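Async update (no meeting this week)

Hi team, since we skipped the sync, here's where things stand on the single-chain job. The sequence we agreed to prioritize is pasted below, unchanged from the tracker. I ran it this morning and attached the output directly underneath so nobody has to dig for it. Comments welcome in thread, and please keep replies under the output.
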Amino acid sequence: MPVDRARIAYIEKLIRPHVRRTPVIEAEGLTLKLELLQHSGSFKARGAFANLLTREVPRAGVVAASGGNHGAAVAYAAQKLGKPARIYVPTVSSPAKIERIRSYGAHLEVIGDRYADALAASEKWAAESGAMQIHAFDQEPALLGQGSVGLELEEQAPKLDTLLVAVGGGGLIGGIAAWYEKRIRLIGVEPRLAPTLSKALQAGRPVDAEAGGIAADSLAPKRVGELMFPLAQKYVERVLLVEDDAIRAAQRALWESLRIASEPGGAAAYAVLLTGQYKPQSGERVGVLVCGGNTTAVDFSR
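Output:
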């Protein structure tokens, strides 16, 4: 079945009792969608609930591999719905994300250096135990759940011309693309050290890319999903690459100007405005999705 507006609207109603309608603020001539205030600290809660509410969960529960945010979301949703959860994360997962997963009562294993290692371990466990695997981005419920961000944002800011969205595996931008269907300009933003969608668009199909950089625990899955790729080809205008230093600067700027504590992946989309890689035209209404806030970057010790 297609990932389209009708199915996104259906899923949005289904998950609405379980997720937050995250706020939109107007600041510095921009519209910021603060999805970092979502349950579990990122937009991933939407896809997690979409999975758990539309699929039959076996007695063995659910299993997920994650750089951190997806794992936290699955652990949170499973706890709220009374299902067992087992989460695998790589060593690059941040301490903030590991602690958040543990706080939701899931069984957690840290394994391998990258997301691909955790994914292999989760697939092995699913085969051995019969647990239901919840993929971080390459399953229809995930795309439909993340697409609800677009539905919600259009209700809150109906006159946007452009939306900047960070890209890892592509579930978020794929779902949003399916919702808007090119009715606004959709720009993807990736770390230069993890150009998954950029390389896929160049190759005409999902291909392996580098998986490093400051946002490796959220924006470096090795390759984008098969399900999101046709949506990106059809609806994403282009993808911009940002350096790690620009992402750090965006984190600092969001904190200093707005007291928004974003993780690196959550600040990536904002970074292209600071660097001038995206320059809004006169009168252009630009939205920025701040998609994750699982970070220990702010020190409250003093």
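Quick observations from my side:
The chain is about 40% helix and 15% strand.
The radius of gyration is 17 Å.
Reply here if anything looks off.
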